[in-house]
Every structure is written in structure tokens, then in C-alpha cells.
Amino acid sequence: MTIGYPDLRDSGAVGTIYRQNPSQERCVNTATMTEAILEFPDNRLLIDLCGEYDRNLTDIESRTGVQILRRGNQLAIHGEPEAQAEATEVLRALYERLEQGREVGSGEIDRQFRLHDDEQDQSPGQLEMFGGGKVEIKTRKKLVEPRTDAQKAYVRSLFENELAFGIGPAGTGKTYLAVAVGVNMLITGAVDKIILSRPAVEAGEKLGYLPGDMKDKVDPYMQPLYDALNDFLPGKQLAKMIEEKTVEIAPLAFMRGRTLSNAFVVLDEAQNATSMQMKMFLTRLGEGSRMVITGDRTQIDLPRGVPSGLADAERLLNMIPNISFNYFTGKDVVRHPLVAAIIEAYEKDAEKVG
Length: 354
Description:
Helix 6 (149-160) crosses helix 7 (174-187). Strand 4 and strand 5 (74-79) form a beta hairpin. The longest helix is centred in the N-terminal third of the chain and has 19 residues, at 81-99. The protein is globular. The N and C termini lie far apart (55 Å). It has helices spanning 43-50, 55-64, 81-99, 106-121, 124-129, 149-160, 174-187, 214-232, 235-243, 275-282, 309-317, 337-353; strands at residues 9-11, 14-20, 34-39, 67-71, 74-79, 137-138, 143-144, 163-167, 193-198, 247-251, 263-267, 290-295, 323-327. The protein is 42% helix and 18% strand.
């Protein structure tokens, strides 16, 4: 029996030719195997698409189980139709990025696969919620694009709401994306300053009396916020902004008594704020300001018996209009793949104990 395939499917800049696998008649187990040929008009962009030593193709092969062979300005994809279609879709999307002058690397490949998986899982109603074009955050050093639909929804809520919560496990981009949006709003003039804060709570360790002045004592707690800012702003410019108080990084306790107007304000590690601290911080919101609260309910470092202010805020504020709550899961982890596996293992163990 011969299975027919269209000779050509036009997809704009990249055409796909489907041919029957020659081994089909020799091996029953490969009856569903086909070859798809993607043709690319610009050979220079194809080199960038393949990556150094074809590492991008190797990444796609490992994720889909297909085999990709390069033939001149064509890529031949061998595999099961479903896997082949997924690889084809990802390759097309990545090539379109290159045509727009954007880079393609492991992060962009990961993003395309995550968005493809999310589209398969979402209902039509949910897909409409995530529609409306690309979600991008422009900063001075880079263009930041959410990698999952949960991240896309989160970024949109940061732009649309004056108060937004990002709640979920480590590595899901809660703080990173919030700081990126803050930098974007600062350089576009939507706000006059950025204020980043964290509770200075030890993560199960007794650090003792740290040397130096007050800044030296609290900076170790604030280092993740400095790291995020350094990703989006040139070093000299960031140093000047910190000196001029355009960018301010301070412990949560330093927020008492202030009114934060025309500012983008982020409270990170909010699960370690007490109920009174959370109330104090939320009531600092002033005219023209945006506030973001991020936290992970599974990593509370408060003394035993002290309730988390993040949990109280969820319970008390979830019905108030113009306050958004955005939740992440292990599927949204964008750090090393092992991080997602570790988080999943802890979540399963917590379910058993519960």
C-alpha cells in the first residue's frame, strides 16, 4: 500500500516537501515514518538556525526524537508524523526570528517548545486569553520574551494592573520578568523610579553579625535583585541610577512610613513577610505607581508559628478588582531542566504527606 503526500506545502518563506520514506516497504515498524524537507531561501540564516556544530538541530532532535539532515539549503526531517510536525513548526518559528534580526539559541528553542506544548494543552477559551500578539519586554541590554503561556499572562497583567501577584516555585521567572517590566517602564517614562525590596530573612542559616555599614549588611540579601538589574541595564548606567536613587534596593523594613509614588515597586520573596509587614508594604502604594508581589509558598523561612503575609494577602485580596493573581507550576521553570524535576519530586512528596 502506498501512502500519498502532497509534493509541496507553502508556508511563506519556508516550503515543506513531504515524501514517502523509501524504507516503508522494507520494514513494517516504520510504516508511519516520513521525510519532510524544509527549504530555506537564505543560506546564511540557515547556518544560524543550525547553530555552531549543529547544536540547535541536535537540541531539537533530542526533544522530538526525529533525525534532521542538512542538504544544501534544505533540512530533511525523518520521524513519526507527529514528532516531525512539531520539529517543523519549531524550525519555522526559529527561522522567522532570524529573518526579523533576532538571535536563536537554546533559550529560544526551549521557549518555542514550551509554547507549542501549551497550545496543545489549552482549551480554545484559554488560548483567546493569551492571544493579542507577541509579548515582549524591551530593556537597554536585551529583549525579553516570556517562554510559557503562564509567563505571557503574568507579563500582560504587570502592564495592565496596578497591583499584581506572581506566585509559584523557584525558577519560573517571577522576579526576573517583574524587574524587566520595571526597567521597561522606567526607560519609557511610565514611572520615575524602580524600588526593589525583600524581607531580610535568613534561609535556615545563622549568618551572625555581618561586617561593614548598613548597606554591606543587607546587600547579600538583595543580591538576586542586583543580578536581575545587571541583566537589563549597562553597568555604568545602573551604578549612576542607584547613586541618584532612580533605582533603589532596600530591605522590606525600610519601607515603613513611605509613600511610593510614580514608581515601579517589587517585593520579592514575599512568603517571608509577616502579615503586618505585608499590610504595611501594600499600603505604601501611591499615585502613578505599579506594585508587584512575588513569592513561593513552599519556601517559607519565617519562625515556626509566624503566619506568612503572602498567604494572608491571597485570602483577603483575591476578590478585589484590578488586583491580579498569577500562578506558576513546575512546567514554567526556565532554569536548568533538573530544577523542574527537583521541584516536581518535592511537590509529589508533599502531596503524599498531605
